[in-house]
Amino acid sequence: MCDLRIATWGKNMERIYLDYNATTPLRPEVRDTMMPYLMEAFGNGSSIHAYGREARTAIDTAREQVAELIGAKSPSEIVFTGSGTEADNHAIKGLSELQKSRGKGNHIITSSVEHHAVLHTCQYLEQRDFEVTYLPVDRYGRISVDQLREAIRDTTVLISIMHVNNENGTIQPLEEICEIAQEHDIPFHTDAVQSVGKLEMNVQECGVNLLAFSGHKIYAPKGIGVLYIRRGTRLANLVHGGSHERNRRAGSENVPAIVGLGAAADLAKQEQDSYARHLDRLTHRLRDGLNAHIDRLHYNGHPDHCAPGTLNVSFESVEGESLILRLDMEGICVSTGSACTSGSMEPSHVLAALGLPPRLAQGTVRFSLGRNTTEAEIDAVIAKLPKVIQQMRILYRG
Ligand SMILES: *Cc1c(COP(=O)(O)O)cnc(C)c1O
Fold first, then answer.
1. According to the model, what pLDDT value does residue 10 have?
2. pLDDT in tens, 266-314
3. Residue that terminates a domain, selected from 230, 250, 267
4. Count of domains for the chain
5. If pLDDT is split at 50, 70 and 90, which confidence band does 351 have?
6. Are 297 and 314 in contact (CB under 8 A)?
7. Which of 93, 63, 58 is closest to 77 using CA atoms?
8. Hey, whose CA ends up nearest to atom 8 of ligand 1?
9. Which of 157, 180, 163 has the alpha carbon at shortest distance from 235?
10. Average per-residue pLDDT for the chain
11. Residue nearest to atom 2 of ligand 1 (CA)
């Protein structure tokens, strides 16, 4: 695995990337399958001549590979979108708006720890006559299925709960949520962007109606996503135009990205077990190392239900954003649990939902590991971090 990072990062080899939940590098094997479709095989999948047919065949193959990865009954249940975010938007708006227009109701149930792709879509719908229940979570970010049951109304048209949380890796009780949704005949959507490739997913066994995931979280390029739509689940369209994707998502297909996603899905399927073991082993190594060398720290992921590869840690008496910058100077790239996008120091909505006191939330760092992560990198982090934390604690003014 280590030789891959040389190809990916070239002269920046000394950097340690531990932010795979934000994005993953393109795999060279994936790039190689894409190259012909960026160059000589440039046809439009809708054209009927040889160039078009070549593109169409490539799209069909990718659709089969993706269907295979998530255990879909038929490739026709797979719709390619422009991102994971678009897939979430399509699922939530498309289903809710259609159900409401049919007089089925206007109530949506989701959780308070969803990605913004889901949360902000629900907030948008709230401004358009929908009512949304945001289920609370326990201190590790899990919803309670009893509270889900209690939240269901006659007017509930959709339940949307993520599979694995992007900030702390906590896994939601998907099977139980599915059962409850089926008992009440309510469609269920899951944002599986952080679980596909890491955890076994079989949409037929699990029974979800809708599932979203994203190319760039599984070593395919950015700007390509997937929405699985179980046969028989009806949605309004988000993007209108031509008859692409069986009239479900208009716009000429991004053939190279679709081909790349297909290849990445195929590799993810083959390597799922070894990938999960690799992540699990290194996550434990990191955790053991932190425990041995740093005191006054807290883990925010679920102790029993946590996807491998994510370690969300709060360091007492440390200011997280400064810690990220200090680590960046050391060549270690990680994320904070604060909403740094706005330049503010607000703790993330996820950490807030866990009930983490602001004092701890602000000292929170997310390490997320991936394919190219090595033991040597983890050991380098363990060698550097304790000293940085110690220095920062001396300067800390709570
Ligand atoms: C990254 C991510 C998304 C968004 O996917 P994009 O392809 O970047 O739009 C949605 N949900 C979760 C949980 C994510 O981690």
1. 44
2. 999 999 999 999 999 999 999 999 999 999 999 999 999 999 999 999 9
3. 267
4. 2
5. very high
6. yes
7. 63
8. 84
9. 157
10. 94
11. 193
Is the same domain home to 290 and 359? yes
Q: Which domain holds residue 392?
A: 4-26+272-396
pLDDT at 260 over 50: yes
CATH number of the domain at 365, please: 3.90.1150.10
Straight-line distance from the first to the last Cα atom of the chain, in angstroms, rounded to the nearest whole number = 42
| Domain closes at, from 219, 236, 267 | 267
Burial letters 83-92, b for 16+ CB under 10 A, else e = bbbbbbbbbb
Find the 202 Cα to ligand 1 centroid distance in Å: 20
- 188 and 211 in a single domain? The answer is yes
- 110 C-alpha to center of ligand 1: Å? 16
pLDDT of res. 374: 98
- What are the pLDDT digits (tens) for 127-156? 999 999 999 999 999 999 999 999 999 999
Residues 198 and 73 both lie in one domain: yes
pLDDT given for residue 12 in this prediction: 53
Ligand 1 pocket, Cβ-based, cut-off 6 angstroms: 21, 83-85, 115, 117, 162, 166, 191, 193-194, 214, 216-217, 225
Distance 310 CA to ligand 1 centre (A): 15
User: Residue range 331-336: average pLDDT?
Assistant: 93
> Is 340 a known active-site residue?
yes
Mutate to test the pocket of ligand 1, among 118, 193, 195, 227 (most ligand atoms within 8 A of CB): 193
Cα 375 to chain centroid distance, Å, stands at 24
- Is there a contact between 162 and 168 (Cβ–Cβ < 8 Å)? no
Helix (H, G, I), strand (E, B) or coil at 6: helix
